[in-house]
Amino acid sequence: MGKRTPLYDQHLALGAKMVDFGGWDMPLHYGSQVEEHHQVRRDCGVFDVSHMTVVDLSGSDAKVFLQMLLANDVARLASPGKALYSAMLNERGGVVDDLIVYLTEDGYCLVVNAATRDKDLAWMQQCSEGFDVELRERADLGMLAVQGPQARARTCEQVNHVRAELIRALKPFQGFADGDWFIARTGYTGEDGLEIILPQDQVAGFFSELVGAGISPIGLGARDTLRLEAGMNLYGQDMDDSTSPLISNMAWTLAWEPAERQFMGRAALEAQRAQGALPRLVGLVLEERGVLRAHQVVRVVGVGDGEITSGSYSPTLGKSIALARVPAATGVRAEVEIRGKWYPVRVVQPTFVRHGKVLI
Amino acid sequence: MSDIRADLRYAASHEWARLEADGTVTVGISDHAQEALGDVVFIELPDVGAQLAAGQEAGVVESVKAASDIYAPVGGEVIAVNTGLADGPEGVNSDPYGSWFFKLQPSDVSELDKLLDADGYRAAADEA
């Protein structure tokens, strides 16, 4: 039996098909994954993301520690509530995890992946040697994501007036603490929406209110197709300890300036960058019927081979899409082997859908 | 609980087979199978005219989640395929027993007797 979030019984009562995800029993879907996907793109839905790991960081060295630990620069967080997406690297420049870090009144709050919890905490602890910092996992907290064009408006109807005003005023990638809740305008779907961190014992009540108000519960299945359409990486699939951000479509998250900031993995990344001709993580679109899947081989005639890292059916496009790591010189066409046959695919920027609009 | 119809025969690999009055056999996948697969998005069907042995690969069902092979429950010649599935693969989820995949002219009708009946299939599906 896996670990359970405070919503386990409600998922079952809502008819969820449960699956193991990184040691957690989580809802895959509540009937139709494709319908749930459309629901988020068109209106909104609520996800249980209480399996994710929340870590508070405090201490007089908190800022300099994170400036060493993370490839993005927390100096960019100008005021409490601001959020930053970053990779946490090892010495070789490989991605230990990707995470969101919020500046808080007392320090920082990091949200890391569930499946990588143990190694993340161990790595942070190890790196914190010599720094005056305190890392505290917040297992007492749960987390809900409400995502979709109507997510903020619908959530506002379920909270008090003051909280609703604060939600309406939020800018993207910004959050606020309100009592023991933390509400941020972030997400993993390519739509507007909120991620709400709240005490575990309040998760079930708030989830019930949202679902009772007609906001559909959405499972991990749709979460995966939504993030894939949005061109967002999934840790362990599109990047891991052995792949650097430079070959994972995450170069935009690297803060090279100031040049004297010696973040973990920097030297390895600089060496890679100098070497040049690095593989790229690109988007693929299959125009024919079929479904692209992780680990299928990508062939670029005259250039070389690559591999699909995430592939699925895109409910918004009505065709299959994928993320793939391909040679640097790859152009706009490639082929993918599906069950022994080669199918032509289009190579595109890996953002397929954003804010309900098809971009490819 | 999944719907298992008494008037059909089933393969352990989750295809259903129905002997029609004209001696042909219609094939699809069970309610249990569609439930396990989740949203079906694409189906690869055999060619009309193909000769299949019982248990031979006859096509592929792709759901959002995974691809899985479909097998011929009995041997015979493929005499028709359901081309409507190309544009409406989701029918397999909403109506698995109406959404047939292909029809066979069986080479040996008695092969149907080797398939599971509803009770046998229910027992097999429960274990899986």
From TrEMBL, chain A:
This is Aminomethyltransferase. InterPro entries: GcvT, GcvT/YgfZ/DmdA, GcvT/YgfZ_C, GcvT_bac, GcvT_C, GCVT_N, TrmE/GcvT-like. Gene3D superfamilies: Aminomethyltransferase beta-barrel domains, Aminomethyltransferase fragment, Probable tRNA modification gtpase trme, domain 1. One of its GO terms (molecular function) is aminomethyltransferase activity. Substrate binds at E195. One of its GO terms (biological process) is methylation. GO terms for cellular component: cytosol; glycine cleavage complex. The gene is gcvT. The lineage of its organism: Bacteria, Pseudomonadati, Pseudomonadota, Gammaproteobacteria, Pseudomonadales. The keyword Chaperone does not apply.
From TrEMBL, chain B:
GO terms for biological process: glycine decarboxylation via glycine cleavage system; protein lipoylation. Its cofactor is (R)-lipoate. One of its GO terms (cellular component) is cytosol. The modification N6-lipoyllysine is found at K65. Residues 24-105 form the Lipoyl-binding domain. It comes from the Bacteria. The glycine cleavage system catalyzes the degradation of glycine. The H protein shuttles the methylamine group of glycine from the P protein to the T protein. The glycine cleavage system is composed of four proteins: P, T, L and H. Belongs to the GcvH family. This is Glycine cleavage system H protein. It comes from Pseudomonas kuykendallii. The lineage of its organism: Bacteria, Pseudomonadati, Pseudomonadota, Gammaproteobacteria, Pseudomonadales. The gene is gcvH.
